[in-house]
């Protein structure tokens, strides 16, 4: 890794702003990512690290582009997600999908997951301990997908990354540098279902997160 970094820095100092990876090489890399993500999904399926495994019907590891520049992280699977084993497919999920489409993009371009992979009873907020137990899976997913931007949907997602309480109304829309990536906090779509006046803000934040993810600017 260090050698590669040095080599790239030399190229950069010579004025190269882009390098082109062979298409075939890229497709091998993506196949590898798919395989690694499947391994994690399998580990999640067998996981009993926290009590949430007792109340789940299906675990919800997450889904989407294994090579996404932008990852969305929600709080936890709800009832519909638990039934289908897929993230953000209920009412809040439909709103998220609609908003992504309103920006001219598709949800399949991105990777979508949650701070915990099993549904908490009665959809309560996952505890910090449960988030901690599940963190290793999210951490690995981030490492594999390697997104430039991670859009955190709601305070519970904020807590999982920043390990402190966050106030979304105050902290949303800021660029938070984190391990060579950008964390971008915004409202949870379920909050928008209860507070429709904030819908344009969520839309604007999603648009901004996508722009940041696709911009050539380095973190
Ligand atoms: N659906 C999810 O997958 N996550 C949430 O946080 C809410 C709904
Ligand atoms: Fe394991 Fe995460 Fe499910 Fe807890 S929520 S049982 S840590 S997969």
Structural class comes to alpha/beta
| Oligomeric composition of the shown chains | single chain
Q: Helix amount, in percent? A: 40-55%
Bound molecules: uracil, iron/sulfur cluster
Using the coordinates above, name the CATH class. Alpha Beta
Task: Give the key terms.
binds uracil; alpha/beta; globular; Uracil-DNA Glycosylase, subunit E; 219 residues; 6 strands; six-stranded mixed sheet; binds iron/sulfur cluster; 50% helix
Question: How is this structure best described in words?
Answer:
The chain has 219 residues and is of the alpha/beta class. Helices cover 50% and strands 12% of the residues. It has helices at residues 2-13, 23-45, 52-55, 79-84, 91-102, 128-145, 155-162, 168-171, 189-194, 199-214; strands spanning 63-64, 70-74, 111-114, 149-153, 175-178, 181-186. It has a six-stranded mixed beta sheet with strand order 1-3-2-4-6-5, with helices on both faces. It is globular and about 55 Å long. Uracil binds at residues 74-78, 81, 87-88, 90, 92-93, 114, 190.
Helix-strand layout with pairing:
Layout: H1 2-13, H2 23-45, H3 52-55, E1 63-64, E2 70-74, H4 79-84, H5 91-102, E3 111-114, H6 128-145, E4 149-153, H7 155-162, H8 168-171, E5 175-178, E6 181-186, H9 189-194, H10 199-214
Parallel strand pairs: 2-3, 2-4, 4-6
Antiparallel strand pairs: 1-3, 5-6
Helix pairs in contact: 2-6
Bound molecules: uracil and iron/sulfur cluster.
Uracil binds at residues 74-78, 81, 87-88, 90, 92-93, 114, 190.
């Amino acid at each position: 890794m260090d050698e590669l970094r040095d080599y790239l820095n030399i190229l950069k100092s010579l004025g190269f702003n882009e390098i082109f990876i062979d298409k075939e090489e890229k497709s091998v890399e993506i196949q590898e990512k798919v395989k690694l993500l499947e391994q994690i999904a399998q580990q999640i399926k067998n996981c009993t690290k926290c009590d949430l495994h007792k109340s789940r019907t299906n675990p919800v590891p997450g889904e989407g582009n294994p090579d996404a520049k932008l990852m969305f992280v929600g709080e936890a699977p709800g009832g519909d997600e638990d039934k289908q084993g897929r993230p953000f497919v209920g009412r809040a999920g439909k709103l998220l999908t609609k908003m992504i489409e309103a920006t001219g993009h598709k949800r399949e371009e991105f990777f979508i997951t949650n701070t915990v992979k099993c549904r908490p009873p009665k959809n309560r907020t996952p505890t910090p301990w449960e988030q901690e137990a599940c963190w290793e899976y999210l951490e690995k997913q981030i490492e594999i997908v390697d997104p430039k931007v991670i859009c955190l949907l709601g305070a519970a997602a904020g807590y999982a990354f920043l390990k402190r309480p966050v106030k979304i109304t105050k902290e949303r829309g800021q660029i938070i540098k984190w391990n060579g990536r950008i964390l971008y906090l915004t409202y949870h779509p379920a909050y928008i279902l209860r507070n429709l006046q904030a819908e344009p803000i969520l839309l604007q934040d999603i648009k901004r997160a996508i722009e940041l993810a696709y911009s050539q600017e380095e973190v």
